[in-house]
Structures are given as C-alpha cells and as structure tokens.
Amino acid sequence: MRMSRNMAGPVLVGGGLVVTLAALAYPAVLGLQTTGSSPARVIANTRFGPLTEGDRDFVVKVRAAGLWEFPAGEMALTKGTTKAVHTAGEHLVTGHAGLDATCRAIAPQLGITLPNQASPQQQGFVATLNSDTGKQFDTDLANILRVTHGQIFPAIAKIRATTKNTLVRQLADQANDTVLDHITVLENTGLVNFNQVDFQETTPPKLPANQMTPPPPQPGVPVVALTPPADTSTPAPAPSPTTG
Asked: How far apart are CA 220 and CA 115, in angstroms?
C-alpha cells in the first residue's frame, strides 16, 4: 500500500523520535532502578523516621532530574517556537527549582550527599536539546521529557506509599504534584506522540549503571542551587519541609 503525503510526515516524525530516544538510551530518571543493593534496607535511623536505600536513592534522583530538566526548561524559554512550549519551559524551571530547594533542605538533615551533575545519560538529553533548533527542538523536548515524567510517576507513588520517613514523604508529595503538572503542560504542546511514548516508557533498554548514575560531587564543592530567572512567574508547588 502506498503512503499518502499526509501520512508520510507524522510517520517520519515518529520514526525520528524512536531513533532519537533509542540513541540516547533511556531516561533512567528517578526510581526505576536503585543504586543500592536493597531498597527496603534501613541505612539510618533519623529523627524523621528510618531512612532506607530506596528513600536515599529517591532524593538523589529527584536532585539529578532537576540538574538536566531545569536547563531543558531554560532552553524552552529561549528556543521554543510556540507559546505552549514556552509555558512548558516555565513550569519545568520553576517546578524543578522548587524540588531542588526541598532536596537541598532535607539532604543535610538525612545525611544524604547530593550530586552536582546529572547522569551521563541525562547529560546526553541536554546535549541533544542544545543542538536542536526550531520545530525539532519543540518535538524532542515534549517527547523526551514526557517519557521521563511518565516513568517517574509510578515510582513516586511507590515511595510515597512505603516510606516511613516524614521528609521523604513530603518530597514525594511535592514531586507528585510537580510531575503531574509537567506531564500536563508537555501534553498541552500538542507534540506528544503517545504511541511512541508509551512504547518507550514500558520497554526501556537496559543500560550500564555508570550511564544512569549521577557522578558524586567533588569533596568540598558547594551544592549547586537551581535558581529560576526573576521573570519566570509560574509558581512552584514547594511546601516547606519539616525541620523539627
């Protein structure tokens, strides 16, 4: 059967998306795999409740997600070609700034060391978006980030349902609201290829751990803060963590 000219465009876009996502491997963000041996193993008893390996990994991975999705949002503000993409950029920047502030507030209280760089895989996503222009940038932004947010969503629910640590529970509440908001604004761009996104979310390729793990910070280097520009007005859903 011959393909009509009207059908060819969407198919080529979808095919390009598959190649892009496959070449970048897979958004390993947040909770799909743990860096420890047993997520349920208690590694510290804090005044906020026991801290498990899964709890610690969740905090680290939320931080790592912000280290690449925040600059992706900044790029959307300057490179996006539509108002909807600009809006998505605003939400990405302010949402991850809020999550990052919470991570930086609770990490010292829980004895967690935060990374200052995203994983090599996540850095690859930033490099791809940085090299994109025009409509290709809009399409890649919407689909790559929709995949990553779709992957983390159930992981957040699992942490929220199982953690016995009040600070981790508050971060999970905030992350749930933020990720749902980001999923919504990404879908509102009208650029999400749902068939391909569903495939990428449910059949991720296996990657070496070193591609999915953010590198540890250099000793003595301050924790980098993600600070949104002053003119970004979208409010971040960032409840204050309990400190006592």
From this structure: 12
First-to-last C-alpha distance (Å) of the chain: 68
11, with CB counted inside 10 A (0-12, 13-18, 19+), is exposed
How far is Cα 74 from Cα 92, in angstroms, rounded to an integer? 8
SS3 187: helix
The answer to whether the pTM exceeds 0.90 is no
Contact indicator for 91, 182 with CB cutoff of 8 Å = yes
Q: pLDDT tens across 164-190, in order?
A: 999 999 999 999 999 999 999 999 999
pLDDT tens per residue across span 29-52: 333 334 446 899 999 999 999 999
For 138, list phi and psi in degrees, rounded to 5: -55, -45
**Residue 163: count of CB within 10 angstroms of its CB:** 21
User: Rounded to an integer, what distance in angstroms lies between the CA atom of residue 71 and that of residue 229?
Assistant: 12
C-alpha–C-alpha distance, residues 10 and 33, integer Å: 33
Give every CB contact of residue 83 below 8 A, 6+ residues apart in sequence.
none
127 in Cβ contact with 144 (< 8 Å): no
Q: In 27-118, which ranges are continuous DSSP H helix?
A: 53-79, 83-110
